[in-house]
Amino acid sequence: MNALMIKALAFAAILIIATIAAVMSLDMNVFADDMTAITMGGAIAVATITAAVAVKYINQIKTDTASGELAEENWDGIGEYKNELPSGWAYSFLALFIWSMWYGLIGYPVNAYSQIGEYNEEVLAYNKKFEATHKNADAATLKEMGESIYLVQCAQCHGTTGDGLSGKAHDFTARMTKDQILDVINNGSNQLGYPMGAMPAGMAQGEQAEEIAAYVASGMRGPQPASFAACSSCHGIDGQGNNGMSPNLVSYDAALMSHTLQNGKKGMIGKMPSFKTLITPVQEKALTVYVQSLSN
């Protein structure tokens, strides 16, 4: 074994060890999914093939002599031999051509395989595992998880403290403001998809609308105005939504959070999108626990 080969093997070994060390430092299970395993295998293969090819061709340069029939064309006296294309190159080109035809005509059009499809499958598998792991999570764990979800998905509009960024989005530190309630009374609402359907506009007007808005905004504390009867038929005498049939006016219960996340909601800074495909049931539960903590 000559010195060149020893150096090449040492270089390949260093690359392989560095790759393994980098992956291990990330606390990753190399065999947890196909993509990670393929990436690791590819990195090791690249290091090994690089070393082997370098040794082969450097040694070949030392011993090879030019031979064969020269082409007629030359450039400033420099000619080119009419040698056959190396078989490895030809086979590689042929394999790539066959694969590209399969992928272009079959693989991609009928979604037989795509990186997006594989990613989606991996996400579904991970979500299933996540749901099973955390299905019985305690309140403290759910709150901690919900805070992480909130800071990533919600804080941009609602603020890191849930204050709604000075009225630009909904303020989670209280259920609703008087102005928000008056807006719903005057204009109606049909955004959240509750079983009882749309709330029509004009259920109360003038002074009655004002006293209903003030009462609900206070958390329904103190004497209940007689005009609240226009609301209690759907929202219940206690304002808690008749067991999920309509929105809870007092707190952010699970039904209210679920309907909002599933359907989205129009606000001052635009429409909040639906999150029904973006978070799992356990994550929805965790987010509910955290948002409830903001108004306590």
Strand order of the largest sheet: 1-2
Provide the structure class: mainly alpha
Shape: elongated
- Which sequence of SSEs, written as H and E, runs from N to C? HHEEHHHHHHHHHEEH
The main β sheet shows up as: 2 strands, antiparallel
Helix content class: 55-70%
Tally of helical runs:
12
What fraction of residues sit in β-strands? 5-15%
The beta-strand count equals 4
Low-confidence stretches: none
Could you tell me the radius of gyration in angstroms? 33 Å
Distance between the termini: 75 Å
Can you describe what's shown?
By secondary structure, the chain is mainly α. It has 12 helices and 4 strands; from the N terminus they run H-H-E-E-H-H-H-H-H-H-H-H-H-E-E-H. It has helices at 3-25, 34-63, 87-107, 115-134, 139-153, 155-158, 164-167, 178-187, 206-217, 229-235, 254-263, 281-294; strands at 70-75, 78-81, 265-267, 270-272. A two-stranded antiparallel sheet has the order 1-2. A two-stranded antiparallel ribbon has the order 3-4. Strand 1 (70-75) and strand 2 (78-81) form a beta hairpin. Helix 1 packs antiparallel against helix 2, helix 8 (178-187) packs across helix 9 and helix 11 packs across helix 12 (281-294). It starts with a helix and ends with a helix.
